[in-house]
Amino acid sequence: MSDIKAPVLQDYVPIPELHPGAMAGVKPFKASAEHQAALGFPGTLVDDWKAVAIKRLGELVDGSRALKVYLDSCVKCGACTDKCHYFLGTSDPRNMPVARQDLLRKVYRRYFTWAGRLFPWLVGATDLTEDVLDSWYTYYHQCSQCRRCSVFCPFGIDTAEVSMAAREILDSVGVGQKYCNEILGKVHKIGNNLGLPEPALRNTLEGLEEDVKEATGVDVRFPVDVVGAEVLLITPSADFFAEPHIDGLIGYAKVFHQAGISWTVSSQASEAANFAMFIGSREQMQKVAQRVRDAAIALKVKRIVVGECGHAWRVAYAFWSTLIGPLDFLDPRYPRPQHICEVTEGLIARGALKLDPSANDDKVVTFHDSCNVARATRMGDRPGGQFTVPRSVIRSVCAHFVDMDPATIGDRTFCCGGGGGLLTDDLMELRVKGALPRMQALDAVVQGKKVTHMAAICAICKTQFSKVMPYYGLPREMVISVHQLVGDAIVLGAKE
Amino acid sequence: MAYEVDGKTINADEEGYIINLADWSEPLAAIIAKSEGLEMTPNHWEVVNFLREYYNEFQIAPAIRVLTKAIGKKLGPDKGNNKYLYDLFPYGPAKQACKVAGLPKPTGCI
Fold first, then answer.
1. CB-based contact (8 Å) between B109 and chain A?
2. Is the peptide bond before A326 cis (omega within 30 degrees of 0)?
3. For residue A381, what are the contacts with CB-CB under 8 A and spacing of at least 6?
4. Is residue B14 part of a domain?
5. Residue B65 domain-assigned?
6. Distances (CA, A) of A262 to A130, A212, A222
């Protein structure tokens, strides 16, 4: 832990007194020329960056009517101001969503609206200068693209789209973010965000087979590249590496084992994450997604199941059909990708898994809705399934479940503080402070309802929480995978 | 940034991970550890040495679970857990221990 000071938890999160410039000095490391080149971006700030940036902005606006509407229609009503976790945690007024998005909007107005061209001073339009570019880099890397503010916007402005556009423009002029761009390079080169080569993947999974055998006496397999398996599991590589993620992976394996579903991971597409969404690059997003299609065809699978990863589920659910569709080679009964939670819920509903919830009797569990799952996707076939399916799974395997404050869950969930490509050590101050609203809501149920664990279905959320919770006096071990609860409650070998 | 070892300058990235993995030496590890506020003990060395062995074979640091299992086998079951590793490397066994061991930083959602 570093000496970052977390805000003090109170009975509720107050709207802070403004501190202009409080976070002006917090920005992530820039991508090296090498990381930029691997994605086809210029290595350093290009000479004619101003012209390039304005041209790119114009192309983005021309290419997306939605973006144009988002840039044109804000009336500065202020409904979004206190909805952002980063504003609440940092008190920097530029982290009010309206102010952050205006950093781009005021430049758009200057070059792309007649009023801004003729009377910039009347309509808050400004020239693109080096300072403005710098403010984009700083503050568009203080937005986790969680879209909570959009829920409260009377116009439905999707602020994440504005942040994504800004990052795309920054990349196009040669100013990329190290964390995201280095990782995307590894996906292309090695197959996953971690840079986990195939032999290491196989070694890790063999180790898990031994562990499960030792703990349960049952041979649960963790297959790699098995041609003809029914299911291709696409999961974040953190599930192969980090704690508490890996217990979720063990849970998926136990579910497949007990249900008699043959499955495999792919060494070529050993990653669910698609960080290209964070940097707003459609081209990169397509390239990263294509690996999944190629792997599914090569392995001749009938279904694609996505593990616990928030933005990956958004990409799979909302974008795969246009990026890599049609997925018409899949079993017509499962024509679209499925979330592991809906698979597990379905199996529980038809009695395919024998469960002993008393295995989790030592826990009182709450659930953190991940932003991309909550506000951009669905699970199952019911409206709101993205909220009810994971909760139904948890309730089936755990007797003690309570929700946090309704204003902080469901479609109003607060970001963990590390989403959208900000889960990097160089932004630790932002991450600690941005976790405030979630930590406050969690602490309230820890104090009031004796909650011992918070389950999550996103690799970023799990890592972020286990890193920042100690700053708030909460133990990192509280964070668990939903499928850890499932895995612990499954009675293996007891199939009827 | 850079480290000074016996009058030699060893280049590192912004976060202190050395650039050229062949530059690593035990004196350098001790210097990196010191800049992280760590005093190297035999227990720290056990972790660092295991990381380096694993990296030599697989070109990546081991999963935390692989590391805890290996340390548990070597130093006893009471030490084969996450808490023990966090006590040794408070900023997290994956990243901080890798830095000291002269390995690249593991990236991704970890």
1. yes
2. yes
3. none
4. yes
5. yes
6. 55, 17, 10
Could you say which of B60, B82, B108 has the minimum Cβ distance to residue A243? B82
Structure tokens, A451: 């909650």
Provide ipTM, 2 decimals. Answer: 0.95
d(CA A130, CA A411): 37
Contacts of A14 (CB under 8 A, 6+ apart): none
The verdict on A484 touching B (C-beta cutoff 8 Å) is no
Asked whether residue B15 is domain-assigned, the answer is yes
Distance CA A288, CA A292 (A): 8
Judged by a CB distance cut-off of 8 A, whether residue A447 touches chain B is no
Q: Domain count of chain B?
A: 1
Phi and psi based region of residue A476 (left: phi greater than 0; alpha: psi -120 to 50; beta: remaining): alpha
B105 within a domain of the structure (yes/no)? no
Rounded to the nearest angstrom, the minimum Cα separation between B4 and chain A is 23
Write the pLDDT tens digit of every residue in A439-493: 999 999 999 999 999 999 999 999 999 999 999 999 999 999 999 999 999 999 8
Q: For the whole model, what pTM was predicted? A: 0.97
Q: B85 and B70 in contact (C-beta within 8 Å)?
A: no
C-alpha to C-alpha distance for A442 and A451, rounded to whole angstroms: 8
Q: Do A194 and B108 touch (CB under 8 A)?
A: yes
Contact (CB, 8 A) for A321 and A359: no
